[in-house]
UniProtKB/TrEMBL annotation:
It comes from the Eukaryota. Pathway: Sulfur metabolism; hydrogen sulfide biosynthesis; hydrogen sulfide from sulfite (NADPH route): step 1/1. Residues 113-131 have a biased composition (Polar residues). The keyword Iron applies. This is assimilatory sulfite reductase (NADPH). Its EC number is 1.8.1.2. It catalyses: hydrogen sulfide + 3 NADP(+) + 3 H2O = sulfite + 3 NADPH + 4 H(+). Residues 765-914 form the Flavodoxin-like domain. GO terms for molecular function: 4 iron, 4 sulfur cluster binding; FMN binding; heme binding; metal ion binding; NADP binding; sulfite reductase (ferredoxin) activity; sulfite reductase (NADPH) activity. Keywords: 4Fe-4S, Amino-acid biosynthesis, Cysteine biosynthesis, Heme, Iron, Iron-sulfur, Metal-binding, NADP, Oxidoreductase. One of its GO terms (biological process) is cysteine biosynthetic process. The keyword Iron-sulfur applies. Belongs to the nitrite and sulfite reductase 4Fe-4S domain family.
């Protein structure tokens, strides 16, 4: 029979061991190699005992037991596919320090289906042919998987080396009492054809002496007998595990030095030279490849062939233990680039093992080694091959050396993938697990024990700590505590032992409650104190208990794993944990982004959650920190409490790109959770035991397989019974909904059509729109009305809701399409355009059409961007003509730059359209209703009722019933929104938009009690998205309130004695005021005025209480409402009032319709107010008729006259404001249209007292005062910095929890500032320290931001604001950070520069009075405005349009430098840019758009 790779290994084994095990499988028979042996030299002069084991009979358990009992030098001959199942036994073998050497030949595996093969123990036996041949490749994955078991690992690249290292392995195993694994590639081992020198007779005795054997035996006797059967099964139940008595393992240095020493002996004997880590190449190499010796031969060959002068190769013979020091010593310090060459059968793992070892070496070495490298880290690349390594060609290596690596990942050939990693600090790049580790630290604090992460920042950063490693040692720790419990139990029951009664009681209580972390601590602490007292008198087991007192506390044991485990659950640590039944928690991170999820069904991740739930007694949770912080928190706590294995699957998408932004991570998370790809749930078997439902769904949708599991287990029906509201989304899995989509859409179109048809004649017209905002859609609706008036039947829909084939059936199709992005189709027209633009033929010759486009010829201002103007409509028109459709009339082009924006062109185009359809001009019929449509809607609404109540009852949709209702709800403080991050994905899946509601709470003056704060906090968790927004107008806002939670939300708010009425809508809104009435008596009087005025101007309709609070005022009768101030049409537009207290203009008095500036008497008491009118921020890009305006000061009124004055200003606007054009309806336009003098006269005519001359006052700034301040009455106030007003918990800054804790003990108030921050007001001196400690604990004390950051403010924008064109709240902090380095460098750290950002020109964060403002134009592009007044008194002006982030930084950096160098004393940035001519001052709203 032919010789195989095992023959030489068998020879070596025979020569150097006392017992040999061969592991046979159907495809591999190492026992035959033993049978063939002729040379009988053996180390002990007796033939070793040979045992043949079968691969499928857990052979390593027998080997481990035998080595433990007999303590013989043991050799094993096996193929690598038997290693994975052996992991627990390998750990054991290593911990008992047996001198076992496992000789493995790497096995070929089908890379797509390794698990099955392994389980069946029947790996394919095809000859190694390299990769790409039906996916069968020799796999080193098995070898890598056992690298942390405590075995030393040697690898070789040819048969001679394998033989030589086999002898060295055995000698090193004996001399260090460390088990070894000696691995060789099957191809290299057997088939090299080279003659092997088998000189073991001479070499073996030189390597291993009798003395070595004796010394090893002595060390072995220190290892006591162990109870083997129980160790991995139920350690927590008390069976002892004696492995903890094992002597500590040999150190890395010890093993490394020993191997090096033995190799030197070998060389002396044979002349054959090896080094544990072997460098080949020039001493000044610039590039060095690093490879395990196994699999390196082709690389070696290719490098030699390439003749590169400055390229070297490191071959690793001794891979474990990994010596960072020796690795660095082997590497020439001239190296600039290290290419780690490694097999990677799966493309999913972010980093491969050797790459991690190499990278970590640069971070974790001693000071000496660091000095040698002078802190420089070469660029480290990961070059992966998918085959055996044997088929890497010379060309591949050449390509690797010459490539510029422009992209993060590129493939040189299908088997060779290089992945460069940032040279500076490759591992710290990833903070994928940081948020979860921070949470674990926060929740469990001292009890936390992360076994394989050791509380490091990153689990990846600690390459030597893998889950497999951690598992073994965790089991040991669990067992040790169990033994301690046993000791305690025996001690308290020992009647011969004298124990003081209190101690016995404490110990007994502890024993009973040792699994409960709190009680274990309490009774443990008692026991420790008592033991301490009796310290000297302790005897026997009590003394032993005392020395082990650290075991009293119940640790929270965690292992952290990666999503790569999901490809092979059975062989990863997951399976071990589940089957151990031990009280161990496993946190498994999944970093695969939703948008890059693996679609290949052949190579799918297994669902670990389902796998574990099927197991039964395992706690399982699926969480996502960027979706729900509190759900993660609950899951971690429950996992810890669960007495048994827990698995927490944690999502943290990490897109494969440099500088991943938090927004990307957030969006990926939302997509994953919303689509049901990553459902949030908890499965707690402990609840089932209590008769409760074990499954709790924490998100809305689930994926199909989970649904099937729940159906099978009957839990689904229970969930639906308990929560009928979620039934609809829950039971509609993604798949079934996608199928239903077409049917539903067709039906909807048909229904709409039938409705519209009602009795109409004439040619049918199909009106299709593409619209991102509402302009194009609005025109489409107007066309439908126009068609009705002309007796035409018409129907309309978004372009994407029809297929292009539908065009062939139509006679007349009218398109109204706007322009989005940069010359792109709006989102609801993209699919349609994709199909149409690809079509080469379409039967539309009978179809007549017309296109009206909406665009803005100045949206992208550079000349070369003119192509983007109205591009979609132009392209659509041309394509339809190309396909043979017949134009009814020429393309119409609406332009925002025209006098009346798109209306200008529409007015010409629309009549032509009707004529082309054969309609005569209408006679006697009004084309457009003269009455304002909005007024009509208000009148029809019956004092703001509409059909809101009916809409709330409809559970088939997440939105309100009618468009009018969405406007009416604003008067109730509610905005219907949809999550824009999810729009496209939901559309793809045929789902309606992700509707939810924003609810704004009216908080006059921004004052809330601690009880109200607690209520808001809890309402946000129970009915909204878990966060609380403090707004720019001193209100609370809840986001993400689902329709089914809306009523509950409003009721809870009212229960807390706050409400939402008139928080939005065409009424007076929340009245703002300087937030701190305790600062002085004056502030208090002002605040009282604000509250009174707010109450005075409230709408009086009872609709609010009727709809939301179920309070019908007049039982049994129709309610007749009356609005004494507003009348049935309310105001033309929103109306905003503020009250300022100089010198602080924090409320931005000039930015509001009506303002009151407090004026004092000489004694400091309140005399009255200067009145300001006509401020306002909103405008529309490109529409010069819209502009921001700062208010005029019109005079002074006394305190007693102020409420009446406020009322009358509002009534002038009620009567004269423009009700026809909402874009022109604010008070600022009423005043500018008629003149300020007219306004004063009109106002005066309504007042019984004269308005006096304005009195002098002085503002200094419009910012908040942070930190502690003391009021006149000696009470303290602390103003916290809340980034953009968003109160939330993050693992690093758990602000929301912190404020909740403060609210629980605080006796004063919470005050919302106009800049979205928060004052903990009215703190007694005696309570200040306590509050301060909580502020510190929850990171609310952090105020060391730059002046720029402290004075920055952003609106909400994406994802909820429907008007947002660009990010704002989620983006501003990172933009400011980019500017901060310059700000700090030039010494402006503490200088306040007001910076504001909004996602659209509407101006919610009052950008136009900021010194620097960014106003969203399109995704990632902002208009930059400069020159606003430092205290909000002057408008800024457009500096440059549509700048991207790098452009913004490039523009502002030199400007900030110049400001630092050239500013005058006390000169503010806004004034400076005007003085030096960077920007022209804006002197009035009307000239805001004048740039020259
Ligand atoms: C984010 C954004 C990007 C735009 N890009 C363009 C453009 O590239 N070319 C253009 O002609 N108009 C552009 N416009 C102008 C719009 O097409 C125009 O305002 C139109 O009236 C909007 O209609 P809609 O509300 O139906 O979407 C853009 C508008 C926005 C908000
Ligand atoms: S400024 Fe625009 S984007 Fe920002 S919240 Fe207001 S409307 Fe939305």
């Amino acid at each position: 029979m032919a010789s195989t790779g095992f023959d030489n290994l068998a020879q070596a084994a025979f020569a150097s061991s006392e017992a040999i095990f061969t592991i046979n499988s159907p495809s591999s028979h190492p026992s035959r190699a033993i049978d063939r042996l002729s040379d009988k030299y053996t180390i002990s002069n007796t033939s070793p005992a040979v045992t043949t084991l079968q691969a499928n009979a857990d052979p390593f358990q027998k080997i481990q037991e035998s080595a433990a009992t007999n303590k013989e030098l043991t050799s094993v001959l096996a193929t690598s596919d038997s290693l994975l199942a052996a992991i627990p036994h390998l750990f054991k073998t290593a911990s008992q320090r047996s001198a076992v050497v496992v000789h493995v030949e790497t096995k070929e595996r089908d890379s797509d289906n390794s698990t099955t093969q392994h389980i069946n123990g029947s790996a394919a036996s095809t000859k190694s042919t390299g990769a790409g041949h039906n996916g069968v490749v020799p796999s080193y994955a098995d070898l890598m998987a056992v690298r942390q078991t405590g075995f030393a690992v040697l690898t070789s690249d040819n048969a001679q080396a394998a033989f030589d290292l086999a002898l060295v392995a055995q000698a090193a195993a004996v001399q260090t009492s460390t088990p070894f694994l000696n691995a060789v590639n099957s191809a290299a081992a057997g088939a090299s054809g080279k003659k092997i020198v088998l000189d073991h007779q001479r070499v073996a005795p030189a390597l291993i002496s009798e003395l070595d054997l004796a010394a090893h035996r002595e060390r072995q006797s220190a290892v006591s007998e162990i109870s083997l059967s129980s160790l991995y099964l139920k350690p927590q139940e008390g069976e002892a595990a004696a492995d903890s008595a094992a002597p500590t393992a040999a150190s890395t240095e010890e093993v490394y030095n020993k191997v090096e020493e033995l190799l030197a002996v070998l060389q002396k004997q044979t002349g054959r030279s090896y080094r544990p880590i072997e460098y080949q190449g020039p001493a000044n190499a610039k590039t060095v490849f690093v490879s395990l010796a196994i699999g390196s031969s082709s690389l070696d060959h290719a490098l030699k062939a390439h003749h590169a002068k400055d390229v070297g190769l490191i071959k690793i013979h001794l891979y474990r233990p990994w010596s960072e020091r020796h690795f660095l010593q082997a590497l020439p310090t001239s190296v600039e680039r290290v290419i780690v060459f490694e097999q990677s059968p799966a493309a999913h793992t972010a980093w491969t093992p050797l790459f991690l070892d190499v990278s970590a070496s640069f971070h974790a070495t001693s000071a000496d080694d660091k000095a040698a490298w002078a802190g420089k880290v070469p660029k480290i690349l990961s070059a992966r091959f998918r085959g055996s390594g044997a088929d890497v060609t010379d060309a591949d290596v050449k390509a690797a050396l010459t490539s510029e690596h422009a992209k993060p990942t590129f493939i040189i050939n299908p088997h060779f993938v290089a992945q460069p990693v940032s040279s500076a600090s490759p591992l710290q790049e990833s903070d994928v697990d940081t948020p979860y580790i921070q949470m674990l630290n926060q929740v469990f604090q001292d009890r936390l024990n992360i076994e394989n992460g050791l509380k490091t920042d990153s689990v990846w950063g600690s390459a030597n700590q893998s889950p497999e490693f951690g598992y073994g040692s965790l089991v040991t720790k669990v067992a040790a505590r169990a033994r301690f419990a046993e000791l305690v139990s025996k001690t308290v029951q020992d009647s011969n032992l004298k124990i003081a009664e209190p101690l016995r009681k404490a110990l007994t209580q502890w024993h009973l409650n040792r699994s409960d972390s709190k009680l274990a601590k309490r009774h443990g602490d008692e026991a420790i104190a008592l033991l301490q007292e009796a310290k000297d008198g302790l005897v026997g087991s009590l003394a032993e208990i005392s020395t082990q007192s650290s075991q009293f506390a119940k640790p929270s044991h965690w292992l952290i794993g990666a999503d790569a485990w999901a490809f092979d659950i059975a062989n990863s640590g997951v399976h071990h944990v589940i089957s151990s039944n031990a009280d161990i928690n496993l946190l498994i991170l999944d970093t695969e982004p939703y948008t890059a999820r693996t679609q290949n069904p052949e190579n799918r991740k297994k669902d670990i959650g389902l796998y574990a739930m099927n197991y039964g007694s395992v706690f399982v949770a699926s969480v996502a920190v960027y979706s729900s912080y509190s759900q993660v928190l609950h899951a971690l706590i429950e996992a810890d409490q669960y007495q048994g294995p827990s698995i927490v699957l944690a999502y943290l998408p990490h897109p494969d790109e440099e500088n991943v932004s938090p927004i990307t991570v957030l969006k990926e998370t939302k997509l994953a959770v919303d689509t049901g790809y990553w459902p949030l749930y908890r499965w707690n078997p402990a609840l089932e035991e209590k008769g409760e439902e074990p499954f709790r769904l924490d998100s809305e949708r689930i994926k199909l397989d989970l649904q099937q599991f729940l159906e099978r287990e009957n839990h689904l029906s229970l969930i639906i019974q308990q929560n009928p509201d979620v039934a609809r989304t829950l039971t509609h899995s993604i798949e079934s909904e996608a199928k239903a989509r077409d049917v539903a859409l067709k039906k909807k179109a048909k229904d709409d059509f039938a409705k519209l048809m009602g009795g109409l004649g004439g040619p049918p017209v199909l009106i299709l729109f593409g619209s991102d905002g509402s302009n194009a859609e609005g025109l489409a609706k107007r066309l439908v009305k126009g068609a009705k008036l002309r007796n035409l039947s018409a129907r309309y829909s978004a372009m994407d809701d029809v297929s292009i084939e539908d065009l062939t059936l139509e006679k007349h199709v009218i398109f109204v399409v706007s322009t989005a992005g940069q010359g792109e189709f709006p989102v609801n027209a993209r699919e349609f355009w994709k199909a149409l633009s690809a079509a080469t033929e379409l039967g539309v010759s009978e179809t007549k059409f017309a296109v009206f486009g909406l665009g803005d010829s100045h949206y992208w201002p550079r000349e070369e961007d003119a192509i983007f103007y109205n591009r979609p409509s132009k392209e659509l028109n041309a394509k339809l003509i190309e396909l043979g459709a017949q134009p009814l009339i020429d393309l119409g082009l609406g332009n925002d730059q025209d006098a009346d924006a798109f209306e200008t062109a529409w007015a010409v185009w629309e009549p032509l359209l009707w004529t082309s359809l054969g309609c005569k001009p209408l006679e006697g019929v009004a084309e457009e209703p003269k009455k304002s449509a909005d007024d009509a809607m208000k009148i029809d609404s019956n004092y703001l009722r509409g059909t809101i109540a009916e809409g709330l009852l409809d559970d088939t949709t997440g939105q309100l019933r009618a468009e009018a209702d969405t406007k009416l709800t604003k008067f109730h403080g509610i905005y219907q929104q949809d999550d824009r991050d999810l729009r496209e994905e939901r559309k793809k899946q045929g789902l309606e938009k992700a509707f939810s509601f924003m609810v704004r709470v009216r908080v006059p003056g921004g004052v809330a009690t601690p009880a109200q704060w607690l209520a808001m906090d809890s309402i946000s968790d129970v009915t909204a998205n878990g966060t609380l927004k403090l707004t720019t107008r001193q209100a609370f806002q809840f986001h993400g309130v689902l329709k089914r939670n809306l009523k509950k939300n409003i009721q809870l708010i009212n229960k807390s004695l706050l409400d939402t009425i008139a928080a939005c809508g065409d009424v007076n809104r929340n009245i703002m005021c300087n937030p701190n009435p305790h600062q002085s008596d004056l502030h208090k009087q002002v605040n009282d005025f604000a509250t009174d005025l707010s109450a005075h101007l409230l709408p009086k309709t009872s609709a609010y209480r009727e709809i939301w609070l179920d309070q019908k005022l007049v039982k049994g009768e129709a309610v007749v409402d009356h609005e004494p101030l507003y009348g049935p049409t309310y105001l033309p537009r929103k109306f905003k009032i503020v009250v300022a207290v100089p010198p602080n203009n924090d409320v931005d008095v000039y930015a509001h319709d009506l303002g009151f500036i407090a004026i004092t008497n000489k004694d400091g008491s309140l005399a009255g107010f200067n009145v300001t009118v006509g401020g306002g921020m909103g405008m529309t890009h490109g529409n010069k008729k819209t502009y921001p305006r700062v208010a005029d000061v019109i005079g002074f009124v006394t305190t007693e006259q102020a409420i009446e004055t406020g009322e009358k200003v509002m009534l002038v606007q009620r009567d004269f404001g423009d009700r026809m054009n909402r874009k022109h309806a604010r008070l600022k336009y009423t005043i500018d249209d008629r003149g300020i003098e007219w306004f004063k006269t009109e106002l005066q005519s309504r007042l019984p007292f004269p308005i006096q001359e304005a009195r002098p006052f002085k503002f200094l700034d419009n910012a908040d005062r942070y930190g502690w301040t003391q009021g006149q009455d000696k009470m303290w106030h602390y103003c916290c910095y809340i980034e953009n007003g968003r109160v939330k918990d993050t693992p690093a800054e758990p602000h929301k929890t912190g404020l909740r804790e403060i609210a629980k003990i605080h006796n004063g108030e919470f005050r919302l500032t106009p800049n979205q921050h928060l004052i903990i007001a009215n703190v007694k001196a005696s309570e200040k320290a306590h509050i301060q400690s909580l502020l510190e604990q929850y990171k609310l004390d952090k105020l060391n931001y730059t002046g720029a950051m402290l004075n920055s403010m952003a609106c909400v924008a994406f994802p909820t604001c429907s008007l947002a064109m660009a990010e704002s709240e989620r983006y501003l902090p990172s933009l400011v950070q980019l500017l901060e380095s310059t700000i700090e460098e030039v010494g402006l750290r503490d200088d306040a520069i007001t910076i504001r950002m909004t996602g659209c020109p509407n101006g919610c964060a009052r950008p136009y009075v900021a010194e620097i403002a960014f106003v969203g134009k399109a995704f990632g592009a902002y208009n930059v405005y400069l020159g606003g007044g430092h205290h909000g008194q002057r408008l800024n002006k457009l500096y440059k349009e549509s700048l991207t982030e790098p452009e913004i930084v490039a523009e502002l950096t030199p400007m900030i430098r110049r400001y630092a160098a050239e500013r005058l004393d006390g000169e503010h940035f806004g004034d400076f840019v005007i003085r030096v001519g960077i920007i022209k001052a804006t002197l009035s709203g009307k000239t805001f758009h004048d740039l020259s």
